[in-house]
Amino acid sequence: MNADRILLVVLLLVGMAMAPVRAQTLPAVYRKAQTEDAQYRAARKGFEAAQEKLPQARAALLPSVNLTGSNSNQVGDASFSYGPYENRSVNSWNWTAQITQPLIRPGNWIAYRQAGAQIEHAQAQLTVAEQDLMLRSAQAYFDVMLAKENIRVSETQLSAVNEQLVLAERNYSVGTGTITDVHEAKAKRGLALSQSIAAVNELASRQAELDKMLGEPMTLLPVRFKQDLPSITTVLLSDWLSSAATQNPQVKIQEAALEVAQKEVAKNMSAHAPTLDLTYSHNGVFNSGSLSSPADLATRTRSHQTALQLTVPLYSGGSVQSRVREALLLEDKARDELLLAQRSAASQVVQAYAGVRNGQSQIEALQAAVEAGREAVEANKIGFRIGTRINPDVLNAEQQLYASMRDLMKARLDAVMQGLKLKAASGVLQELDLLALETLLEAN
User: Which residue among 67, 304, 327, 404 is the one 20 to 30 A from 165 at the CA level?
Assistant: First the structure.
């Protein structure tokens, strides 16, 4: 397959990859992921399941009602006063309805408060999942956007190299150029073509990752960031760190886990405490007679009973003390994990903050490089026409320009992602931040 046919295949692949199946913006991608992303849906189901712990704990404080009953038939042979055996059949049934109201049960009250902490723990875990989904949605969106931009730049580069190849061949044919210039242009053309094919493959890979998260094929609008991005570093690093110390979702998870562990210690220690219950029962009994009595005297009785039941734990083989020791160790473990979460949150903030600042500096440097690169390309083209520059000079200048354009696009996306990660680490990332990013995008 010659170079022209390869180029045609590349252009066809680009057209297929960028065909509008169902164009989506960044907020739309995030909302779609909320309903289709399996990882986030699992986290939400886990939160909904955790909410059931509160009514379960509350039930231990409320009255319990039980109804039990039985119906039996006893058949046998009986002999009275040395008489012949007679077939006997006795029917009986009984039922009991009992209501129990806990009056003093310290462990149940502690478990009720513990359930509240467990729900807070689940809520913090859901917040982590939500912020993670926002970051994954943005990353997948930007990856596709960067891949599309790489294809656009590769096409532009390939077109420019083709122009230089035509010019080099024409100059060689009229005797003003060298065969070396032609070979150099062909080599650069092959490299540009290879980069175009790689860009198409990269788009297909990134699009597949996005489709996996959204559950169906979706293409994105061809957009790119405007020249200027808002600065996040206008807020002091100390303010970001203060926010992370209290708002970071992982910190909140560990704070809730510590509270759950503390309640577990108290609950296990309460196993030493007496309990007091109020019970009321109502009974009904019927008996049609007895196999051991010749007279079938049916009896019916009804009774009710009200009682206070006091239970004083005395000894349980040391299991209570063991559970208390275990709970105390788990409390210490939770406290250490909270400290680790706080330090990790601070580290994430510092890294993201540095990433934003360095990214902004890199963007400024690359913007200057792109402008200088454009001027260098034009200057080399003029020099080539008047004989002060050779064709490889033009090709090298073009290659450097397009490399700078790719790096600039990537630097912008990296800076934006670092900004989102900074907000996530500080616990302030919201859907509004994705909506704000949408205003920074323009049609490509």
Answer: 404
Report how far residue 158's alpha carbon sits from residue 398's, in angstroms, rounded to the nearest whole number: 10
Instruction: Specify whether the CB–CB gap between 95 and 78 falls below 8 A.
Output: no
What pTM, to 2 d.p., does this model score? 0.79
Which residues sit opposite 94 in a β-bridge?
70, 285
- With vertex at residue 354, the alpha carbon angle to CA 438 and CA 126, rounded to the nearest 5 degrees, is 55
Residues 6 or more apart from 435 whose CB is under 8 A from it? Answer: 27
Question: CA–CA separation, 19 vs 77, rounded Å?
Answer: 92
Which domains does the chain show, CATH number per domain? Answer: 3-36+106-273+319-443 (1.20.1600.10)
**Under a CB-based contact definition with an 8 Å cutoff, are residues 179 and 172 in contact?**
yes
**In the prediction, which pLDDT does 128 show?**
94
Distance CA 110, CA 268 (A): 10
Q: For the chain, which ranges sit under pLDDT 70?
A: 1-23, 226-234, 390-391, 443-444
pLDDT digits (tens, 9 = 90+) for 15-39: 444 444 444 788 889 999 999 999 9
Residue 296 contacts residue 288 (beta carbons within 8 Å)? yes
Q: What is the pLDDT of residue 3?
A: 47
